[in-house]
Design brief:
Order of helices and strands: HEEEEEEEEEEE
Largest sheet: 11 strands, parallel
Number of helices: 1
Strand content: over 45%
Number of strands: 11
Shape: globular
């Protein structure tokens, strides 16, 4: 019985390994040497990726999630993590050497919507949204950067109103940085 069970397991391993090699070759041919890695744990979730010459990682754990990613240019990188439910994320990068890291966790009954856009070169967005199970309404965050060398970091543990951050270079402008943080944490008062 043990030998029979081991034979079946070995057969499934070979079958899955062969299918993975075929799938990897087919995806590589379709993507024209672009790297996309996706982990989608629920059938209700949706991921749409359009890119040339870039790297993307999308991880969805939960239900009722949507991710749309478009990267135009070269050497752009997008890492999108979504955990929980009712999350919509739209990410656009146009230019070269831009980076977006986004982690969104939603356990509330209301949708969290995120729109991230970078147009230019060497820009970076780091976004983390946690908590706020008691949010009274849907929540949204919009971050746009138009220019070169911008950085935006947002750590949102709790917020109840839409948040919008726009950075746009003026004459000779660029290389601006913004950090936003909200949290229930505070030091005790004397």
């Amino acid at each position: 019985m043990k030998k029979y069970l081991l034979s079946i397991l070995f057969f499934f391993f070979l079958l899955s390994a062969g299918a993975q090699v075929f799938l990897d070759e087919k995806v590589a041919n379709l993507l024209d040497d672009n790297l996309i890695e996706m982990d989608n744990w629920q059938a209700i979730n949706q991921v749409v990726v359009q890119q040339i010459g870039n790297v993307a990682y999308v991880n969805q754990a939960g239900s009722n999630q949507e991710s749309a990613l478009q990267q135009n240019g070269y050497q752009n990188e997008a890492n999108l993590w979504q955990e929980g439910n009712l999350i919509t994320q739209e990410v656009f990068q146009k230019g070269s050497e831009n980076t977006i890291n986004s982690y969104i966790k939603n356990t509330s009954l209301y949708e969290k919507t995120v729109f991230l856009m970078q147009n230019g070169n060497n820009n970076r967005i780091d976004l983390a949204i946690f908590g706020d199970e008691m949010a009274p309404t849907p929540q949204s965050i919009k971050i746009t950067q138009e220019g070169n060398g911008f950085e935006a970091s947002a750590f949102m543990e709790s917020y109840h109103f839409p948040i919008e951050i726009n950075q746009k270079a003026g004459a000779g402008g660029g290389e601006m940085k913004i950090d936003v943080s909200t949290s229930f944490f505070s030091f005790p008062m004397k």
